[in-house]
Amino acid sequence: MLNSLYIQNFALIEKVTLDFSKGFTVITGETGSGKSILLGALHLILGERADYSVIRNKEEKTVVEAVFKIRNFGLQTFFEQNELDFNEETIIRREISSQGKSRAFVNDTPVQLSLLKELSEKLIHIHSQHHTIDLKSNEFQMELLDVLGGTIDKKIEFNTFFCTYKKLQSTLVTKEENLKQALLNADYTKFQVEELDKLELQTTDFQEVENELKAIENSEDIKIGFAVLIDQLTDEGGSTNAINLLGLVKSKLDKLVGLYPQLDELTSRFKESFLEITDIGNEALESLDELEVNPERKELLISKIDFFNASLRKHNVLNQNELLKVFEELSNAQISLEELEQEIKNLKVQLKKVESELINKAEVLHDERTKKANGIQMQMVDLLYELKLPHTQIVFELNKTTKFSSNGLTEMKLLFSPNKGMLPLPIDKAASGGELSRVMLAFQYLISAKKQLPTLIFDEIDTGVSGEVAQKIGNILQKMGEYMQIFAITHLPQVAGKGENHLKVSKSHESDITITKVLTLTVDERIEEIARLMSGDNINKAALENAKALMN
Question: Which residues, 6 or more positions from 450, have their beta carbon under 8 angstroms from its beta carbon?
Answer without folding.
Answer: 147, 148, 150
